Amino acid sequence: MDEIKQSSCGCMNNAKNERLSHHDDKTIKELTNRINRIEGQLRGIKGMIERHVYCDDILNQIASVNSALHGVAKLLLERHMKSCVKEQLQAGDEQVVDEVIKTIFRMMR
């Protein structure tokens, strides 16, 4: 298993020097539960397609999955801003602002 080191900003890096999040167990559980529900929704959509369910019903389920994914992204962005970004700014790393702006713009597409 990779060795994990904490950087000066509190964000963690593994032996390959990849940045890792440091969310608490509650956040990880909440995100995982949401993703598990979304996986179930996607399997349901696949089954609907295989059963030739009416297109409008499938499209409504797809909209529901998109909304659920958007909720996961908002939660993750909030936690990222309150932890990693905050800590990097406190450590003097202003470059993190550009990174977050790019990410938000990508999310808005």
TrEMBL record:
Supply the Gene3D superfamilies for this chain: Metal-sensitive repressor, helix protomer (1.20.58.1000)
Q: Which GO terms describe its biological process?
A: negative regulation of DNA-templated transcription
Q: Name one GO molecular function term.
A: DNA binding
Q: Which domain of life is it from?
A: Bacteria
CDD domains reported for this sequence: SaCsoR-like_DUF156
InterPro entries for the chain? Metal_Tscrpt_repr (IPR003735), Metal_Tscrpt_repr_sf (IPR038390)
Full protein name? Copper-sensing transcriptional repressor CsoR
Organism for this UniProt entry? Desulfotomaculum nigrificans (strain DSM 14880 / VKM B-2319 / CO-1-SRB) (Desulfotomaculum carboxydivorans)
